[in-house]
Design brief:
alpha/beta; seven-stranded mixed β-sheet
């Protein structure tokens, strides 16, 4: 299909194995929260200076957004503030590459490794941005991009999740489709819902 072709082309362009399209980047962010294994009641560290979806996608899954401060030169999340906000409930970090400028991903990834945290890159405003020669969206556990009308690549509405992780892509596809797994080998739909998903196609 045209959609599958677009996903494959986008993944190839960004440099990941997989891309999963959604009706919005907010939906893609929510799917990323679910797919990275965040549980209700756990904490996700986000910046306060970003579009609302960075935090609300966490709330939509009944998890808790915790605000870390931003750097006063690039307005992206401050790694020092991330570390100060980590608790026993912290499960993930969502750095936002704001205004096309990448967050300090080396420091973010070091913290993530030290505390065993997932990293969801919010690249809604940064398609094509690179961090030390690497495309944003390819550094963390997964990344999301936006195609909303005000973005660099606009389709009116839409978003996409990119990842190299087999499990993340499988769950993201199920979140997009009411929690149902649709296998390439299936002849017809089963309507077996594995978990809470939405109509995010």
């Amino acid at each position: 299909s045209d959609l599958r072709e677009f996903e494959n082309n986008f993944a190839a362009h960004i440099g990941t194995k997989y891309a999963v399209s959604f009706n919005s980047a907010t939906s893609a962010l929510y799917a990323a929260v679910v797919a990275t294994g965040i549980k209700p009641g756990q904490e996700v560290i986000v910046p306060p200076y970003t579009f609302t979806s960075t935090a609300t996608s966490v709330l939509m899954h009944n998890a808790i957004p915790v605000f870390a401060d931003v750097q006063d030169d690039i307005f992206c999340i401050d790694p020092k503030s991330i570390e100060r906000n980590i608790t026993s409930l912290t499960k993930a970090i969502i750095p936002v590459h704001l205004f096309g400028h990448p967050a300090e991903m080396d420091e973010v990834m070091k913290i993530a490794e030290r505390y065993d945290l997932m990293v969801i890159e919010d690249c809604a405003q940064a398609p094509g941005a690179k961090y030390k020669g690497q495309n944003v969206g390819t550094i963390g556990s997964c990344g999301i991009f936006s195609f909303q009308e005000s973005k660099n690549i606009a389709t009116g509405e839409g978003g996409i999740l990119v990842t190299n992780d087999d499990k993340i892509v499988e769950i993201a596809r199920m979140v997009r489709n009411h929690g149902e797994a649709i296998l390439d080998t299936q002849k017809q739909r089963t309507y077996n819902t594995e978990f809470l998903g939405w109509g995010y196609r």
